[in-house]
Design a protein that fits this description.
- With 127 residues, the chain is mainly beta.
- Helices cover 0% and strands 48% of the residues.
- The chain has no helices and 11 strands.
- Strand 5 and strand 6 form a beta hairpin.
């Protein structure tokens, strides 16, 4: 069993920055692909970014490229999402997720391909 806990969300003005963290408990973290998704009110859950177990391979949705950076610390069993130049359209609940199969390529970008989810952290960006 894997438990994921997100933190770091909050309220910022457009152009601001936030860093989200996702702490994992469970032995599968180091061999897992980690992903970030977001869900705005009335919309489907959307892929944001993913990172391979070693951290050398990343994938981003086009709308966040050059603004968001995903990283991980396998000693701390934590994955991060550094968000800069935030826009109002980035407002959503952000969830981290685990895919247990480290060798999947390209990194998965569909919610159904992830096995465990955190409860999410709210990010609100005002204009």
């Amino acid at each position: 069993q894997v438990h994921l806990s997100e933190s770091g969300g909050g309220f910022v003005h457009a152009g601001g920055s936030l860093r989200l963290s996702c702490a994992s408990s469970g032995r599968t973290f180091i061999t897992s692909i980690m992903g970030w998704f977001r869900q705005a009110p009335g919309k489907e859950r959307e892929f944001v970014a993913a990172i391979s177990w070693g951290g050398s391979v990343t994938r981003y949705t086009d709308s966040v490229k050059d603004r968001f950076t995903i990283s991980r610390d396998n000693v701390k069993d934590t994955v991060y999402l550094q968000m800069t130049s935030l826009k109002p359209e980035d407002t959503a609940v952000y969830h981290c997720a685990v895919n247990r199969f480290a060798g999947v390529r390209p990194l998965p970008a569909v919610p159904s391909e992830y096995d465990y989810w955190g409860q999410g952290t709210q990010v609100t960006v005002s204009s």
